[in-house]
Amino acid sequence: MRVKAKRLRVILRQRELRTAALILGALVAAGLLLQNLNSRLLPVLEAKASSQAANLITQAINIAVDNCLQENDMSYGDFVTIATDSAGKVTALTSNTAANSRFKRQVVEAVIRQLNGLDSDALGVPLGTLTGQPMLSGAGPCVRVRVDSVGEVTADYTNSFTSAGVNQTLHQICLDITATVRLFLPGNIIPVSVSNSVCVAETIIVGETPDTYLNLDKGNN
After folding, report:
1. Residue 119 Cα to chain centre, angstroms
2. What average pLDDT is seen over the chain?
3. Which of 159, 161, 162 is closest to 199 using CA atoms?
4. pLDDT digits (tens, 9 = 90+) for 25-69
5. How far is CA 60 from the centre of its chain?
6. Whose CB among 32, 78, 89, 172 lies 3.0–4.6 Å from 202's, allowing a Cys bridge?
7. What's the pTM value of the predicted model, to 2 decimals?
8. CA–CA separation, 9 vs 21, rounded Å?
């Protein structure tokens, strides 16, 4: 009886070892499969999420600038003062430095508020899209991407002068805005930066373009 019991324990022990080996093998195989899927799917997820985030950032910048223009009732004359001689010829363009600096600061603060209010629910890629199969595009639950924090937001003025007809010049004042946010993806954090140039004022200068620019970046001629 003792011999049979001992043999039974040996058999059970061997079965336990085989079961443990099978489970370990399955876990290793699942891990390798998951690693392979991640290496294939994560780049697609990053590209799709970055594209979505870039669109949202661009919208946020445009909304912020439009709101600031409306709230301050800004027009071309608020940015630049045009000096003329007794004959009405434009002789100089002078930047209204204090007003321009104040407006730029307000825009930067408005962009940051817009970015802080980004809806993370708008960022997500369906699993079917990640497979790269056209028939599965848009299908399945979404892999959500979280917008954590806003990085640096900068803004600078640029001025451009282009011909608008005979003896006429179009002067455009633009704000070049760059904004960065950080996206939290499964297992990774990526920054997304967008640079957008928004025209905040423009006018047609009739006659010769003046040679004198005070505190004004001529930009492109």
Report:
1. 13
2. 76
3. 159
4. 555 444 433 444 456 677 777 887 888 889 889 999 999 999 999
5. 9
6. 172
7. 0.71
8. 18
List the beta bridge partners of residue 150.
181
| Count of alpha carbons within 13 angstroms of residue 65, beta-carbon side | 21
Using CA atoms of 39, 41, 43, 46 in order, give the dihedral in degrees to the nearest 10: -140
Residue with tokens 């979280």: 146
Better pLDDT: 53 or 156: 156
